[in-house]
Amino acid sequence: MTIVFRLAVALTLLSFMPFLPLATAQEPLQFNVPYHCPDGTDKVITRCQTNARGGEVCTWRDEKNGQLIVERFNIRSQMDGWLKICKVDAKAAAPAGAPAAQSATPSATKAVLPTGPLNPPYLSGMPAIDKIKREIQGKDPTDTLARQVAVFNEMPLVTQRFLIADRHRYDATPDEQRVCGQYLLAAKELEDGYKKTHTPAEAQEFFRLHGRYEEDSTFFRDMFKLFSPAFMDEYRKVDRSANEWYQAHLEEEKRIGQGPTDAEIAQAKAAQANKGNSPFVRNDPGTLAARRCVELGGNDLECVGKGLSTGFADLLGMGGLSLDTITKSARNGLVIAGVYQSQNGVFFRFGDDEATLASCGRLIDLPLHYTVTRQGGTLLIQLANSPKPFTAALGPDGNLTGPGPTDVQGQIITGYRHYTAYKRRVSDNTIVQGSQHDVAEPIYGPKLERCTIGPLHSTGPVPSTDLMPALTSVMTGDNSKVKTTPAGPRMSGAYQNPGGLKIQFASEAAIIDCGEAHVASAYNVTNDASALRITLNKAGGPLTLTLQPNGTLTGPPTTEVEGRVVSGSTDNAITFAPRHAQCPATTLAPH
To answer: Residue 276 — pLDDT band, cuts 50, 70, 90?
Structure first.
């Protein structure tokens, strides 16, 4: 069991757990009343609990047309985004004092795991938090605590083996998310409690101690004493299936010649020769991605996540791409970022490939493919609507002009199919007595709606969808670390030229490669009557490129790139060596 796979599991699921925030001044919450959101959904906050550091963890339901979509929970500070745009009707507001009545003080580590029918059913065989704390003991109090933290951190790996073996899905169910979130939260609170009563040096040693347990395959096997014999029979089948698939995947990679580039392998070997204890001496996809991330200026947590998610994606057969990379657009060229809303409630939520039209009459959210063309200082956005495409114009003022009354073919909910579902035992697949519950499944039908798409205004910058920066802000309580994307025109895709200059654009930033030097750069896009220009504010001086009618980018004769590469590590830090390169920038073609 490799550390790459182990931590990839934890960080993949970590986004679902309610981490502990720093206290901030916030408006009071309204409980058990709907917050109406622009996309037609409602959010109903049911409770908030005070955690060990005085912050709040809140639970709410997402509903649409009175039907439950999913139940969620998160720290209070991470709810501010939707609280700004989802509003409670004044007449439905809770009476004064209701929020305080909903608060509770117990630590989340004392909470039990979700009960009742769980999906998938195997979750009912996972050990309770109190059982882990009772049965996992060490040679002294510190060793006991380290072993318990290690077990809590390892538990999500068990659920992930079930997920990998199920080749029909790649996403954890809400119940799996909640169970893993409880385990990871328990580990976090135990470690935080230790830090409060010990010196920084002792806390660092404690981190290393439970880390050694988490990397110990013998300790991992011993952990399974917490499970019942019936659960272990099922797990062995699942584990065998996952291992067989992964081995077949590795053999297929060897056959078709996938793997790191020659330059990456050479750099890894050089690092190994330079420093024997460097954490980046291997050449597997996860290690290479983590090294590149820190070289580009990412923090430790962000880069561990990127590297390990790359290894995890490789495990799932995604060619060694990181999880955030495979979700990026394959489009090269201009895209639009942000949410644009009209006074009548109709709005567009733009992604790299599609713009989602919402609140158009009774229609459910409708994704529409779009293209962007430049016409002087205006950008024309052609949306592939049915029965007839239409065009919206993004002007120099940053606002969208719509076509007015427009026919839109979409779908509405015409009713619900009700049926009864049951919880089944893992051991023999028999129905658990009393586990039956009603399920309402929406029934959809076609509908031609006529809605007015008038002037639309931006709702502001867009928070980054990249998991790791958001996760970093949650763990540190520093919301200044949450990355945002400016609304309006952005670039997407890869560009390069024969001289060795490569630029990979995403909505958040661009990565520039020139020889051995690479650097991450913020950029801005400006459009006026003369040209559309992209200015990359990189180390070594800004680089301004102009978008040409044929889709290429043109720039100055040469550009300087100042970067760094990992050269080794000490006990406390990674060490770097500077890299400088110069490349021509006259013409870059989409790649």
So the answer is: very low
pLDDT at 252: 55
Label the pairing between strands 354-358 and 510-514.
unpaired
Higher pLDDT, 304 or 88: 88
- Give, as one character, the DSSP assignment of residue 3: H
DSSP 153: H
Instruction: For residue 176, give the nearest of 99, 111, 104, 123 by alpha carbon.
Output: 123
- The per-residue pLDDT for 143 is 93
The amino acid occupying position 53 is R
Q: How far apart are CA 249 and CA 239, in angstroms?
A: 15
DSSP code at position 343: T
In whole angstroms, what is the distance from residue 157 CA to residue 586 CA? 49
User: What does the mean pLDDT of the chain come to?
Assistant: 75
Return phi, psi of residue 83, to 5°: -65, -25
557: Cα separation from own chain's centroid: 38
For 72, phi and psi rounded to 5 degrees?
A: -130, 165
Tens of pLDDT, residue by residue over 502-537, are: 999 988 888 899 988 888 888 999 999 999 999 999
Distances (CA, A) of 51 to 28, 60, 79, 189, 439: 17, 17, 16, 9, 33
- pLDDT over 50 at 581, yes or no: yes
CA distance 47 to 56: 10
* Tokens (6 digits) for 425: 């035992």
CA distances from residue 30 to 102, 106, 185, 219 in whole angstroms, order as listed: 10, 21, 25, 46
Q: What share of the chain is helix, strand, coil (3-state, %, to 5)?
A: 35, 30, 35
Q: Are 53 and 77 in contact (CB under 8 A)?
A: no
70 token code pair: 């999913």
* pLDDT tens figures, 544-574: 999 999 999 999 999 999 988 888 766 667 7
Could you give the C-alpha distances from 181 to 2, 78, 243, 529, in angstroms and in order? Answer: 22, 15, 25, 52
Structure-token pair, residue 134:
């009772």
- When pLDDT is cut at 50, 70 and 90, the band that residue 587 belongs to is very high
pLDDT of residue 286: 59
Give the DSSP H/E element, type plus range, for residue 430: none
Helix H or strand E encompassing 340: strand 333-341
Mean pLDDT in residue range 305-310:
52
**Cβ of 150: how many Cβ atoms within 10 Å?**
23
Q: Are 130 and 152 in contact (CB under 8 A)?
A: no
Q: What is the 3-state secondary structure (H, E, C) of 239-307?
A: HHHHHHHHHHHHHHHHHHCCCCCHHHHHHHHHHHHHCCCCCCCCCCHHHHHHHHHHHCCCCHHHHHHHH
Contact yes or no for 392/383 (Cβ under 8 A)? yes
CA-closest candidate to residue 283, choices 274, 292, 275: 292
Q: What is the DSSP string of 458-509?
A: E---EE---HHHHHHHHHHT-GGG--EE-SEEEEEEEEE-TTSEEEEE-SS-
Neighbours of 201 (CB within 10 A): 8
Is the CB of residue 337 less than 8 Å from the CB of residue 507?
yes
Please, what's the b/e burial string for 369-400 (b: 16 or more CB within 10 A of its CB; e: otherwise)?
ebebeeeeeebebebebeeeebebebeeeeeb
